[in-house]
Amino acid sequence: MMLGQRVKGSVEEDPVALLQASHAAAQQPQVKTEEQIAAEQVWYGSEKVWLVHKNGFSLATVVKTEAGSLPEGKVKIKLEHDGTILEVDEDDVEKANPPSSNRSEDLASLLYLNESSVMHCLRQRYGGNLIHTYAGPNMVVINPLSTPSMYSEKVMHMFKGCRREDSAPHIYSVAQSAYRNLLTTRQDQSIVLLGKSGSGKTTNCQHLVQYLVSIAGSTGKIFSAEKWQAVYTILEAFGNSSTSMNSNASRFSHIVSLDFDQAGQVASASIQTMLLEKLRVSKRPEAESTFNVFYYMMAGADSSLRTELHFNHLAENSAFGILPQSKPEDKQRASQQFTKLQAAMKVLGISGEEQKALWLILGAVYHLGAAGATKDGDEAGRRQFARHEWAQKAAYLLGCTLEELSSSIFKHQAKGLQHSTSFRGGPDEAGQGESSGSKVTALECLEAMASGLYSELFTLVISLINRALKSSQHSLCSLLIVDTPGFQNPRLAQQQRGATFEELCHNYTQERLQTLFHERTFVQELERYKEENIELALDDIESSTSLSVAAIDQASTQALVRTLARTNEARGLLWLMEEEAVQPGGSEETMLERLFSHYGSAQGDNKGASLLLRGEKPHLFLLGHSHGTDWVEYNAQGWLSHAKHNPAAQNAATLLQDSQKKNISGLFMGRASGATVLSGSIAGLEGSSQLALRRATSMRKTFTTGVAAVKKKSLCIQVKLQVDALIDMVRRSRVHFIHCLLPKAEAVGGGGEPRVTHGESPDSGLMTLDVSLLRAQLRGSKLLDALRIYRQGYPDHMVFSEFRRRFDVLAPHLTKKHGRHYIVTDEKRAVEELLESLELEKSSHHMGLSRVFFRAGALSRLEEQRDVQTRRNISLFQAACRGYLSRLAFKKRKIQDLAIRCIQKNIKKNRGVKGWPWWKLFTTVRPLIEVQLTEEQIRGKDEEIQQLKQKLEKVEKERNELRLNSDRLESRITELSSELADERNTGESASQMLETETTERLRLEKDMKDLQAKFDSMNKQMESMEMEVMEARLIRASELNGEMEDDDTGGEWRLKYERAIREIEFTKKRLQQESEDKLEVEQQNKRQLERRISDMQADNEESQRNIQQLKKKTQRLTAELQDTKLHLEGQQSRNHDLEKKQRKFDSELSGAQEEVQRERSLREKLAREKDVLAGDAFSLRQQLEDKDLEVCAVNLKLDQLEAELQDLNSQESKDEASLAKVRKQLRDMEAKLKDQEEELDEQAGTIQMLEQAKLRLEMEMERLRHTHSKDIESKDDEVEEVRQSCSKKLKQMEVQLEEEYDEKQKVLKEKRELESKLLSSQTKVRSGDMETEKRLRKDLKRTKALLADAQIMLDHIKNNAPSKREIAQLKNQLEESEFTSASAVKARKSMEVEIEDLHVQMEDISKTKQALEEQLSRLQREKNDLQSRMEEDQEDLNELMKKHKAAVAQSAQNLAQISDLQAQLEEALKEKQEVQEKMQALQSQLEFQEQSMVEKSLVSRQEAKIRELETKLEFEKTQVKRLESLVARLKENLEKLTEERDQRSSSENREKEQNKRQQRQIRDVKEEMAELAKKEAEASRKKHELEMDIESLEAANQSLQADLKLAFKRIGDLQAAIEDEMESDDNEDLINSLQDMVTKYQKRQNRAQGDSDTDSEVEDRVDGVKSWLSKSKGSTKNLSDDGSLKSSRHYGFERSDEEEEEKEEGGATQGSQYSRFRYGSQMKEDDSEDRPHETSS
After folding, report:
1. 1600 vs 357: CA distance, rounded Å
2. Residues whose CB falls within 8 Å of the CB of residue 393, separated by 6 or more in sequence, listed in order
3. Dist. CA 640–CA 578, nearest whole Å
4. Are 788 and 118 in contact (CB under 8 A)?
5. Cβ distance 796 to 528 under 8 Å?
6. How far apart are CA 1145 and CA 1200, in angstroms?
7. pLDDT digits (tens, 9 = 90+) for 60-89
8. What is the pLDDT of residues 409-425, one digit of tens each?
9. Which of 244, 397, 1007, 1559 qualifies as a FRET site for 1314, CA 20 to 30 Å off?
């Protein structure tokens, strides 16, 4: 109990977590752990079964025994809970599923599908508070004793938008599935709830409606959850009551119609009700209450309402039994419910006056019950109220006088009844029927008025509800939710009463819905398979519940004929009630007798022969519902009153419409104008939407077509018509079924101790279930058969074109092939290509003629793949759209930039002219000119706007008027069309009635003519007979006169007369003696025949029992075989998926390897280019340094030259000419110096740029080294992970191989068992089952294919093991690292080279990726330049995703920059040379200074070289340190690799040993398979020979039996001839002919004795014939005395059988029978030989 409370508490805390946890636990894991695999192996090793017994089922283990130690058909088991060992029948044992399936979400996913496994799964889930379970396409809900908290808003949003496969079982998942189908297919959906009363159908209906309204939403939120809660509050108050089965049972059937618009929102809604149990107001079974609203009103009405309703003083007793509740807590609860009811009416917009009208009518019904009625015979037989004061209160509340109320109830009964029956036999006959039948009592009239008032009130309530729910919005499709009262059986609630007529109607409705389930699940599926030429090996599907339904509603073919004569044609109970109600002297006894004559069983105690049995008392009868699993005893007493029209019920509507109270009359007068009730039975047909009108038209068509047009006024036939309308409405949509199960009878019935439901000790954590009740419900609903056809068949199907258009997104290459127009000539071929490209397993789908069919779950997997692909395509489309929008935004920015520049330019211009006077004048005058123009334009535009507004308003007004007119006209058209259809159907039915009546009249006229002719002939005969009598009297008189005259002559005549009298007496005695002898002989024959018939009946019953046992056994074996087949198909699909994944992995691996090779080649190319660039950079650096030195030298020379010039300027000894010359040279030199300085500045800038590039390259190299070291470490980690993954994969492969071997052993074991069963069945029955042999052969072939597939998988695993490739790669790396480490010891330079080679080998995709990421970041930094270039070249934009090309483009850009720098350097060198040539003239004058300058330049150059060498030395030291650390790391890696190599070698050795062991096992399996194949071939050959022998023996046996029957016939004829002519001379010839026939028969017997033994009965007959012949030869006298008796005793039964066969077959098929067998010609010859004897006889 603590466990149950803990589970319940967890559910109440977080139901979402519970559902998610159960859904995750129910999902099959992709990879099983070793513990799970070991547990499954232990389970399969110990064969677990369920022992079925009367209290339930118990888990047990099959104990293995030696062959022959147990009797045949027995098995030894050991119970799990106490260890008891038992020997039980094989039929009482069912296979158990693994523990992982204990809480399976779908019953169709169980490995073994049987009753015990299904109930165990349901019990386990129910114990965990998981009351919902999938059953294939249906849902099973077990009603909990306490309502769990799993219907909250949070749970609703958990299921919103989910597919069925992705959600846990819940009532919300059914609603979501129906809503999803409605949106995708735009087809009407319906949800039908089935089950017993009290199983929670109405509660689930409320949850369905609340979920759909909350999730779908509505326009303007007009349909809220609060409004729907108010609707169900009102329905429960006015339509529910307390019964023996349920404390709050629905007493009416209703359909909730939700209409959805284009957007999937609820546009409108309506409720249609039918089959209201209105008689419950006045009369109901004992211990049951009336409708809840009476108790609510009596307990919760306030003082003013009580005063107005005259409830201040309640009556002590009531004719209707409506009394206030006695318990205070019940009164308090009822008062709260009345307050809640009033609030609900306020929510739905029901005004106070309308509520007051409802309370007035309810109060009037109460006061009518308190008034009561007089009994028969009181006060001169007048019918009136018993207490007039209460009747006065009722009349006041209804708004009429007491006289009007009394006349409406009690007066004009004869006229009303006469009118009600006149449609059958006319007024005269009806009057006779009433006079002969029983009169209607006053109490019945009062009850009819009360039920009529409540029926009108209930219809009004439904109209008010629909008024609050209706909407004028356009709706596209609808979703129907059907809720009907469940199966009613008083015996289930421990009540000893018979069921009522209302309970029969509710059970009949459930039976019709069960028939619809059977039709949708079995009949339509099998017909679809047959139409599409799909062969499916299914067991014999039992017939639906049509037998029990036919016993209730089967119509007669002469239903339209107006006659009172009872016919012998079979018809249902409703039609018989309708007939007996108008028959003179009709009663329930005659009705039941006629019903039993049509549908009763010949053997009264055999329930299997018929579904209708007699009860223990006269008025009781038993009807088997739910395929005979639920037998309900009905009490038919008083049922005919339901079929009779009572005018009081019809006067109730008139009384309410003519009420003096305005609130009552206004409500009912408004309703009278519209067709809200159909034929007084179906309420809620009002509604202005198109779908509501369509539903109303459909229901009216049901009531106005054929027989319904004539019988729709009949109260009994209305029941059938209402259910027909319901079924017809549901049949037009796609149906989703929900099976609501009752957990135990104590939950609904009375108290009592709970029963023990199973053999084990009760588990405190599980909620108890009544297993026998649950088993009966499962058998009655045929859930197991539905699950089998769902598992074995193809439940999902789609049309070719629809499938191709939906799933071609998974094969884009086929879409390109078919082109843009999407037109395909051969849809089937296109679908086949699509399925081939999808790589589906062949067993998971089947191609029909126009559709493609799928196994369960295959289409959902395709849908999931389609969703993934669609999401990917949408993401790509979004990326393309965003790119396009970004480009548009960029273009817009460019235009804005241009506009900004233009504005800036204009502003600058404006600044220049703003002080200009003319500009000021222009800016002040220009606006004044435009103001007048703009004002005139604005005025004109305003006038145009006003005119357009007026036109718009006028058009809108006309549009609204036209819309209202069109809606009004459409509604009027629909009403007129419905009325026209009604009139047309009525006319058709009337014409049909007229034709039938004319034919009947013609027939009756013909019969009358015949009878008149016979009457005339009889009159003539009578007249002739009278004349003869007169003549005889005259002759007698004359004779007497003659005797008196002559006495002598009279003596002679007297003697003759006496002699004649004596002869007559003697003849009488002789005839009497002969008749007594014959009677004695016939009696003896009769007793003998009776004994033989009883013996044959016993043998027949025994054979029937054996046949039933064999049939059950075959069904169990076929079910297990089908389960095994499905398991094998599941394994094959799993292998197919694994192969598909392996192929995908191989393709990805090869692609990755190619990518690695490509990246490696690109890396090498980049490294080479990098080395080239580094060399070029180094040479350029050297050149720059040389240029710097040269520039320094030139500067020094310039300084010297300036000094010299100064010296020269100071010299005054020069002449003017030389001075001018020098000045000119000085100016030239200054100009040259300026040019040189500019060139030096440019070169300094280029040098700075090169230095920056050099620093950037050095930083990049250092970063690459750092990343390289990180990559080496990550590679080490990756190698370790690869090694671990390889070891895991090897372990998984080993486990899979062990599983495959165990599965093979299991299959071989099952095959051996099947072969042993086949041999035993051959020895017993002699004729094998060819279908079983074919299935076994298919299983054998499939097993061989599985073994071959396993061998191929083993070879594939051996050859393509991923660990070998990785070991080889690691070995190669190990050798390379060893080689590099050995060379590193020898010399540092060689070590550097080898380490760099090792870097090239070890640098993988990560380094390239890192470099590309760095280049991408650099590209992002240079985004502006790249964007301009990419806009100029579209091709570079498309290749942005290819990072390698971007890297190549960057390297090309660097090369271009370097080439530009080289060109600049060359130009600088050329200019330098020119400067040097110009300065050569000056160098000759300054030689001594030049030498000193050269030495200085050499010193500076040497110093620069020294600094460079120092930096190189430091760099080399850092490199040496890094390389030493790298060598140490490589040594550690080498040690690790050596250890891994040793481990790999040991694991390889283990794998080799294991592979050898598996090869030996496979070789043993192959040898066993070969032996099995030989044994199978030998068994099939023996079986074929036995079948041939059996066929020949059967043919011979049949021919001999035919001869023997003919011989016995002849013997009988001969016996008759011998008795007549015993003393003739032909006796010897006859006896000789018979002896010849017997000898011929013995010869044939001897010939056939080698093949088979003759029948013992036939031998006895031959011996009897021989003994009779010997006796007849010995003495003919004894033959005449005793032969007839003996022959009759011996052959009376055979002769009677032969006569019956001759009557049935016509005696003309002897020759045709002989020609079918081997010995046909010989039989014909024997027949021709025997014919002369027959003719002589």
Report:
1. 88
2. 310, 363, 364, 367
3. 8
4. no
5. no
6. 80
7. 988 888 777 778 778 888 888 888 888 888
8. 887 544 444 333 333 33
9. 1559
